[in-house]
Amino acid sequence: MKTPLQRNPFAVEAWFDFSLTLTFAVPKDELAARLPACLEAETFDERWAFLAVAIVQTRHLRPQGLPAFCGQDFLLAGYRHFVSYRNVEGRRLRGLQIIRSETDRRTMAFFGNLLTPYHYTHKPLKMDILDGVFHATDASNGLHISASAADEKSPLPSGSPFKSWKDARRFCGPLPFTFSHDPIKRRVLIIEGVREQWKPSPMSVHACHIPSLAHFGFSETRLACAFMVRDIPYHWKKGRYERVAPL
Questions:
Q1: With a threshold of 0.90, does the pTM exceed it?
Q2: Nearest-angstrom CA–CA distance, 161 and 164
Q3: CB 3.0–4.6 Å: which of 26, 94, 138, 214 could bond 218 by disulfide?
Q4: Domain 12-243: which CATH number of 2.40.400.10, 3.40.50.360, 1.20.1600.10, 2.30.110.10
Q5: CA distance linking residue 75 with residue 115, whole number of Å
């Protein structure tokens, strides 16, 4: 059930130990068909649209201005579509549409669902780093991701639609905005993230079993690229609504 608070009602800040994002290419027409009319799929080569799976270790998440010890530490698995939205001023904003969010902390799932429309569920997520390899797991469904640092000369994943890491970098997330559509009140919730020292580094993916991808029902899902950022501050502005015109 939606509540009036589910709009990111105040600015929030946090520290990211790391954010590992795997980007998957899916048929653009299939993703576009799932979007509300006010959102447009971000595409590449006139064939592909994209969704991201991000594993994020977050520290001291709290309302902006509070001391760090008031914050929450949690591991997040986030699933998002790459989309754009043209605002009332005619400006095109690139961002993400939230599909689902998973966290290893029950308290984060509760408050996340109370204050945002991000669809949090509690999961036994774990992240281990062994000999420079990141291993993300979820014992409840068999999720397993393994990845290690690469460079611009490393090959992209087999079957990736991108020709270079430069092309792929446009889809490494998170993007500056997230969007949530309310069809009843015909409005869009816009939450802007403020990034600092944002320098995503290429990652080589050694194992990638993400059962949730099959539930999304795309006819094809290709691993397109993976990037990581580490040790960065991040904050989100207070959410704001814009009305969208009826069809």
A1: yes
A2: 9
A3: 26
A4: 2.40.400.10
A5: 18
